[in-house]
Amino acid sequence: MDTNPLENIRVVLVGTLYTGNVGSACRAMANMGIRHLRLAAPNLQNSWEEGERLAVHATDVLKNREEFSTFEEAVADCVAVVGTTAREGLYRQHVRAPRDCAADLLSLAATGPVALVFGREDKGLLNEEVAQCTHLIRIPVDEGYTSINLAQAVLVTCYEFFTASGRYVPPHEKAPPAPQAQKMQLMKNWAEMLVEIGFMEPVQTEHFMQGFHRVFSRGVFTRDDAALLLGVARQARWAVRHAKELPNG
């Protein structure tokens, strides 16, 4: 049975001020396959119109959010509480980058909910909230400017968990690699074409074709690649011969 550990990830926003940030966070979560949002003691200063607009196609995440009066209530059922912090100081010494601990935390998510906790836009998590976290993470940034927008922090963190989950399968080349015989046929036709169109003289063939061999040998060269370029060479040679046969050719 295929189990998705991301189903047990809970994004918890603490004391959030602006609905636009909540909506943008929902969009970031949906991008990364995480769909459970909790608001702990929200202190919203504007209407939900902006939040709904910025959620775009992730309004289901926004509408299905859970709201709690306190931080403690929002994480009460979680087997791990992962606080995010950009600051240093008391209770904040033992931080890790999201990438370094995402796999371990996803393993914990197989046993129960794991909370990814993000603090207020203006002052982050309070010390007493940090003290209740079982893990602390910090997104690596340039020390010249360490403050990250709330939704951006959600996106980067969720990205690391999504990547660690193995849910993303990158596209792969469907065409098989070109066999050597097809490559040599291609080189032969290109050499003849380049002479016929005046790109090079016959005595220059070896010199120029060494360069083309280097170009075509970089990376995986597929049957489709070879067929395409072979077709170009054949068509160009036909066009040159056809032009010479015309009355004014």
Explain this structure.
46% of the residues lie in helices and 11% in strands. With 249 residues, it is of the alpha/beta class. It has 2 domains: 5-165, Alpha/beta knot, CATH 3.40.1280; 180-245. A 7-stranded parallel beta sheet has the order 3-2-1-6-4-7-5. α1 runs parallel beside α2, α1 packs parallel to α7 and α5 (98-109) packs across α7. The protein starts with 8 loop residues before the first strand and ends with a helix. The model has no long low-confidence stretch (mean pLDDT 90).
Strand content: 5-15%
CATH topology of the largest domain: Alpha/beta knot
Strand order of the main beta sheet, please? 3-2-1-6-4-7-5
Order of helices and strands: EHEHHEHEEHEHEHHHH
Oligomer: single chain
* Annotated CATH architecture of the largest domain: 3-Layer(aba) Sandwich
What's the N-to-C terminus distance? 70 Å
Structural class: alpha/beta
Give the strand tally: 7
- Rg to the nearest angstrom? 29 Å
Task: Summarize the biggest pleated sheet.
Answer: 7 strands, parallel
User: Residue ranges: pLDDT <50 for 5 or more in a row?
Assistant: none
* Morphology: elongated
The CATH H-level homologous superfamily of the largest domain:
SPOUT methyltransferase, trefoil knot domain
Which CATH class of the largest domain applies here?
Answer: Alpha Beta
Helix % is: 40-55%
Counted up, domains total 2
How confident is the prediction overall: mean pLDDT? 90
Number of helices: 10
